[in-house]
Amino acid sequence: MDFTAIDFETATRRSDSACQLAAVRVRGGEIVDSACWLIRPRPFVFSPANIQIHGITPGMVREEPEFGELWPEIQSTLGDDCLIAHNASFDLGVLMACLESHDHPVPDMQYSCTRAIARRTWPQQPRFGLKPLSDWLGIRFRHHDALEDSIACAKIALAAAEDSGATSLETLESKLSLSRGSAGAWGKKGPTSRRASTRRKSSPRRSPSRAPEVAIAGSTMTSSTISNSTAGSASFAIEPPRPCGISDSGVDLQRLMIRADFIRPLEGRKVVFTGVLQKLQREEAEMLTSRCGGKCQSSVSRKTDLVVVGDPDSRTVQASRTMSVKEATARQLAAEGAPLRIMTEHEFLEMIIAM
């Protein structure tokens, strides 16, 4: 997965009124670099409605370069990458309008759109805006800040690739039957479906309860360029637990799996499962552990970090249940001072969400 995610903010309704641009470079499925520019629009006019949306005021960009001055640096940053944006027609339109307004030739470009990608990856979702999708995936960000919007856009593309089993943008587009958009001096043509219907068979609607969100570390970027950013996986932090997709009937495993790849809350931990799991199949639990960065063990030892005991069936009296050999060994080691934790399946799932 190699691409560059971009996002523009504009001073007015005019497409050539860019006042902020961000670019986030992805290589091998990881965010490796980012840049953000504040831009003095020409003419130097701001709409109060636009200011209310993104919070960028004339005073913040009065001394910044115009787009034409910044273009060589922007062009060098974008390179020949396929550009990805959410509602990409808007962002490519702003880019092309700014180039034309500042008398720069429009280069040939390839681009894709995470809204189109999301529609084909998760057709059961009711809304496909950047904020609703980010909320569903557990990504928290400050909407209408170009850098944070670009990071969220990149994360949505990577989540779609993970969910589709795609290891490259080309493979993802092929799996979704989505043609790549293109633009140049002749105009632009957005990504389109390669077949009449690309909607996959919808799975049953999940519980509307929401998982805790992932907070993108860092505040508003106001310097002209931020390079060598650590805005990838290392810059994510978790908020305290809130109601999530765990219910009496099970879990939203798809969302947990996607989130696990971003957060890896069990990185380096050794986990043992024992007893009958009620909310997950044993294979699902082991897969989730692996996606969270943990390693499953078949037996308990002093190297074990977590022992997950299947929640007792509601028909079984807790006091009369039979303790497994693994659980008994874990309790003995814990009593001897071994630093391992013993928890129920429900506590295990809540811990993953809370970390």
Compact description:
This protein is α/β, with parallel strands linked by helices and 355 residues long. Helix content is 34%, strand content 19%. It folds into two domains: 3-238, Ribonuclease H-like superfamily/Ribonuclease H (Nucleotidyltransferase, domain 5); 264-354, Rossmann fold, CATH 3.40.50.
Walk me through what this model shows.
The protein is α/β, with parallel strands linked by helices. The chain folds into 2 domains: 3-238, Nucleotidyltransferase, domain 5; 264-354, 3-Layer(aba) Sandwich (Rossmann fold), CATH 3.40.50. It has helices at residues 48-54, 58-61, 67-78, 88-101, 114-121, 130-137, 146-164, 169-175, 253-263, 282-291, 325-335, 345-354, and strands at residues 3-10, 18-27, 30-38, 83-85, 109-113, 139-140, 181-184, 187-189, 214-216, 236-238, 246-247, 250-251, 270-274, 295-296, 306-309, 341-344. It has a 7-stranded mixed sheet, with helices on both faces. Helix 5 runs parallel beside helix 7 and helix 6 (130-137) crosses helix 7. The chain is elongated and about 75 Å long.
